[in-house]
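Notebook entry, structure prediction.
Reason for the run: the old model in the group folder had no record of what sequence produced it. Starting over properly, with the input documented here first.
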Amino acid sequence: MELNEKQLWYKEARSLKYFLHRQFVHLLTLLVLVPITWSFAAPVMGDHSWLGIKDITWFWLAVGVPIIHQVVVWIVFRLQLGWATLSKIFGDFDLFVWALFFLPFLLARVISLVGLAYVNSSTLVLPDKLAITLAFFLIIPAIYTLWSVIKYFGLIRALGADHFRISYRKMPLVKKGIFKWNSNSMYSFAFLILAAIALLLGSQAALSVALFQHVYIWVHYFCTEKPDVEIIYSIKDCRDT
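New structure, fully documented this time:
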């Protein structure tokens, strides 16, 4: 692998072939996951609304937001890795602009699922005590993961800062907090909080979407992040531009 010393981009990523690498798998997975998610949610929807929004609309918001989010992340990460596009356009403000775009989408994923869970509450065929107990056991690792991300990993790094700054590419792996036990804890545990929300409100539709989001973030890892990481971290002794 070779890094242009005056640019952030890698020549290995600077092609349409790499830009689209594994995105056909991404599409095929969506074509399978979305109908399955709908099949579990549809039987318990159609009669309620909240804030003037019907439950079916909440469902498609809760499914559509993560899809748009992860498609945008794919496009930006691949443009940044191959051409340093955001850095060329925004200069030193590239990460700030990316955070302004990324974080609202992350928040919208939670808000849309909460809306679905609320409008579709009491539809889950599980005893309340069992649902609450399961939610409790899911919340613990999720909260610990979020705390570990903020304290040890850093929010900016979690946004994909290694696509924007060579200095982040030089940082060692985090081995504190939850990361001491699982190096990919953000994907493994943080998304459990969505399932916990669905369980606490007793929503079958929200639980199906929470499971969709959890599986779908691993699709992002396999199709977008993992190939990028294999390019970025094969580089040694890089210097900042």
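Summary: Residues 1-6, 235-241 have pLDDT under 50 and may be disordered.
The old model has been moved to the deprecated folder.
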